[in-house]
């Protein structure tokens, strides 16, 4: 937050599995709003409800099939907030976290400083309440507490009370991971807990990808038990595959960077490529499932990207397609790097192998051609935020090769500079880049196999 803000909103700081420390600084008296405003925000339940619905009206797409009105599935965009609205909106901490988000949204739309103050006050108060709730047994933590944590992470993605903070967002996600892991997979099979888990594991995958470490929810137990009484849909099964990619990235780093010298041997390299082949086989099986379960005309219309004119009520398919392309972009880029950096004789995959095509370029172009659809005015904040990871991955890929001057790259840059939603996503990605530089340093990334340039060092998104 800027130096003008009255308090440094420190995020959750995890020092042990059973303790969370929250240390917000005191709020400057000189910047307090009129008492009437504070009273409305802190004591008037009807006013709070009105504020929540104003926020959701801005957050969700303007469509008859908005998740707020029509729950397509648990993996529909923003469905976890719908579950919160129907299941635990009366809980104090949940309302406090929502007040922080809603007031932050009102401030960004109106630039009325009183909403900014109210957002900071609600955020600070909710963190203190959360700290008290988490001093005991994590396994006894209620779904409402988990919902509160999810909302606080969203507060940071949405811009907080001024600008997005990836550092705070990452800390919240790591805290959510610890809570869910200690609660166990079976604790996330009920309606609210399950819906929160679905979005949380996707966010966990994003953070794991950036940190180049395995996702904590890629084990067989976490891929099955939360669905004990449910049926997975096409997006559930796609994310089952996506959560495996960070583990492959980490395994590649172990070998290529010789983190554990004994692991860099022909057998470990061969095992890496075998895992890559198994994942590719699973991706191909998922492709077949998507084709069988989707209208052929819709698939054809989105074959080369999501056109701006694609019907907004089909946003579930649009988002699923972009996530699929993002996984292939990151996975195939990893494989091209691995084939250059850790080749092994008779490996399961070699540069001359025709087992499968691992060219990431088409998928980067498809994602870039889709940006306009997700940044449309009627799409709401949730539609734009849903592709932040995809846009960041594509922007990184474009920045490393000749594609940076392509028409598609220009469209992507323009999208990040246009409108409130594009600028919001851009600020979040910049915050993520700066956070990585400060905490992890510049990581070595490589251009695609088709590029003739030397290896480059750049910052990962």
From TrEMBL:
Pfam families: Fungal_trans_2 (PF11951). It comes from the Eukaryota. This is Uncharacterized protein. It comes from Venturia inaequalis. The lineage of its organism: Eukaryota, Fungi, Dikarya, Ascomycota, Pezizomycotina.
